[in-house]
């Protein structure tokens, strides 16, 4: 369901891998009985039209059902824990001109990428809270 990468791609305004996230949330939030029924009815292909008509914008994410929001929230927390530092530490480093300039160009670029990723993840936490 998630593809070879095993990850979802989030942007500032919407989920960029919305089909994969939609299907994953749908399946993971099903009861065992619902899943068996869905699988028996070959439901995997019956929903293609429904999936095409839904977009996972930030507004749509904030309106997900509670179990899906909790699953996303917990997943984001786990992802944030996998980083070596928190958002504030990244922000402090970006704001400290002296410390920032001591970083190599590659380290500076990595800092900007991590900071952007963490900001998007924190935004998602707020949306599904």
From TrEMBL:
Domain Rubisco LSMT substrate-binding: 4-121
GO cellular component, one term: nucleus
InterPro entries in the cross-refs: Rubisco_LSMT_subst-bd, Rubisco_LSMT_subst-bd_sf
Keywords of this entry: Methyltransferase, Nucleus, S-adenosyl-L-methionine, Transferase
Keyword Ubl conjugation included in the entry's annotation: no
Compositional bias annotation for Acidic residues: 43-53
Protein name: N-lysine methyltransferase SETD6
One Gene Ontology term of the molecular function aspect: methyltransferase activity
Localization of this protein: Nucleus
A Pfam cross-reference name: Rubis-subs-bind
Organism: Circaetus pectoralis
Region (Disordered): 39-58
UniProt keyword Ribonucleoprotein present: no
Top-level division of the source organism's lineage: Eukaryota
GO BP: any one term: methylation
């Amino acid at each position: 369901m998630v593809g070879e990468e095993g990850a979802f791609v989030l942007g500032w305004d919407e989920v960029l891998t919305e089909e994969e996230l939609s299907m994953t949330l749908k399946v993971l939030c099903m009861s065992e009985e619902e899943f068996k029924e869905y699988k028996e009815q070959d439901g995997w292909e019956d929903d293609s039209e429904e999936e095409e008509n839904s977009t996972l914008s930030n507004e749509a994410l904030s309106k997900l059902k509670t179990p899906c929001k909790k699953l996303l929230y917990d997943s984001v927390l786990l992802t944030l824990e996998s980083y070596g530092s928190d958002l504030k530490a990244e922000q402090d480093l970006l704001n400290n001109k002296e410390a920032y300039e001591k970083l190599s160009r590659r380290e500076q670029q990595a800092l900007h990428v991590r900071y952007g990723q963490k900001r998007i993840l924190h935004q998602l936490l707020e949306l599904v809270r």
